Please model this.
Amino acid sequence: MQSVFIINFNSLYEILDEIKENLSFKIIKIENKEDFEKKLDLDKLDHLVISKTDHKLLLNNNIKSKIFLDFNDLPLSFNKLLELINIKLIKLKFNQQSKITIKGYKLNLNSKFFSKDSLKLKLTEKEIEIILYLNDKKIKHNVADLQKNIWGYSTDMETHTVETHIYRLRKKISDLFNDEKFILSHKNGYFID
Model:
């Protein structure tokens, strides 16, 4: 769930806290810069910061990429405020999906391009699912596991869908990037090392 940090803005926090069950984001109240730095997860890119004060006072080199909403131009209707927050969170999610790095390759979930240097390869949804699944677990996945978790097939079905998709994906990557070791196979299954 995405987080919205509310800094030195108690009235806004109290209003949002009243309706938090209806929000699509988590709200976190911050009192000062030190508290902000402790609670902010620098590894995550899905934070939005709302502040009545100048956000530049809160910045250090590690958090320059975070998105801030300043409220110097008040009053603002509550509906407009929620609309602005949701728009910013959608933009954060969109940007986050366009910056996945796997073994030196960039995977953009929005455009479905897999790229390295100046070379780009358009992937299908299923190919992206395969790459993300193999990369996420860092273990070897056998055909039955992939059938169940990517295709939703029962493990007793006889199918060569997994092998065919993996073969085609490996061939596409090998042909364009001359990389035959992106997806590896082992007697225990497929994996990305």
The first strand starts at residue 3 and ends at 7. The radius of gyration is 22 Å. The chain is about 40% helix and 20% strand. The longest helix spans residues 78-96.
